[in-house]
Amino acid sequence: MAQKIVAGNWKMNLELEGAFELVDKILDEDKPEDVRVVLFPPAPFMYPLAMLNDGSFDLGAQNFYVKNSGAFTGEISLAQIKSVGGSIGLIGHSERRAYFAENNNFLKEKVDHALANKLEFIFCCGEPLMIRESGKELEFVKMQLLESLFHLTADQIRGGIIAYEPVWAIGTGKTATTEQAEHMHAAIRLWLTEKYSKDVADSVSLLYGGSCNPGNAKELFACQNVDGGLIGGASLNAVDFNAIIQSY
Ligand code: PGA
């Protein structure tokens, strides 16, 4: 069975005081035992938040570079992330693809680098609006997975995490319908089954991301192939984020 996950991607928001307040409120709330909570704060907040953590959540890095150390001004290594309490990384978020030119080849390198360094990751995929309107979203997302992720062996991908985030739904208030989300998630599960096995496919958590909020989380999480959410805007509000966690 795939693990249930609710992850908060804070992006480039908040300052330290606000981050402390938010985490305090997340820590205060009882969480369903079978839901894993992951937070992706801005990198400077990882260490102070790790110090506060009582084991209620995992800390992740929104970004990392594919080298171990050296002259790469502005970049962060996986060893550095681990040394401040990070245990998981985001790979392939549409904002990194769009604003930082991270293409499928580079994302494959990130996947391999995370594996080599034994860092868990969430691999994000999803189609832009133009592709959705042309009806080619399945082909588009399949290509993202084929070019960056599906070179992994069954053992490497077993228990992994994929987030489907349609670009047109990110930060727009326009959520995918449960039918649209389930259709894509079922397709991803099928591709995993075809490439690996049903057993492997069932072990991979498939998260939905894109304007997920307390009003729609319950019905999205109730979909057969949706194992949780990657939450942006609503993860910055403790009441909303806690309510999404409770939506399971
Ligand atoms: P959103 O962002 O929830 O604000 O749409 C999701 C994401 O970018 O991961």
Task: Describe it.
This protein has 248 residues and is α/β, with parallel strands linked by helices. It has a single domain (4-245), classed as TIM Barrel, CATH 3.20.20. The chain has 12 helices and 8 strands. Helix 1 runs parallel beside helix 12 (238-245). The chain starts with a strand and ends with a helix. The mean pLDDT is 97. Bound molecules: 2-phosphoglycolic acid. 2-phosphoglycolic acid is lined by residues 9, 165, 170-171, 209-212, 230-234.
Q: Strand pairing plus helix content: what structural class?
A: alpha/beta
Mean pLDDT: 97
The shape is globular
* Largest β sheet strand count, sense and barrel closure: 8 strands, parallel, barrel
Major sheet: arrangement of strands: 1-2-3-4-5-6-7-8
Number of strands: 8
End-to-end separation in angstroms reads 15 Å
What is the tally of helical segments? 12
Report the sheet-strand fraction.
Answer: 15-25%
Low-confidence stretches: none
Helix-strand topology string: EHEHEHEHHEHHHEHHEHEH
C-alpha Rg, in Å? 17 Å
Brief characterization of the structure:
By secondary structure, this protein is α/β, with parallel strands linked by helices.
List the helices and strands and how they pair.
Elements: E1 4-9, H1 16-28, E2 35-40, H2 46-52, E3 58-61, H3 78-83, E4 86-91, H4 94-99, H5 104-116, E5 120-125, H6 129-133, H7 137-148, H8 154-157, E6 161-164, H9 178-195, H10 198-203, E7 205-209, H11 217-221, E8 228-231, H12 238-245
Parallel strand pairs: 1-2, 1-8, 2-3, 3-4, 4-5, 5-6, 6-7, 7-8
The chain binds 2-phosphoglycolic acid.
2-phosphoglycolic acid (PGA) is lined by residues 9, 165, 170-171, 209-212, 230-234.
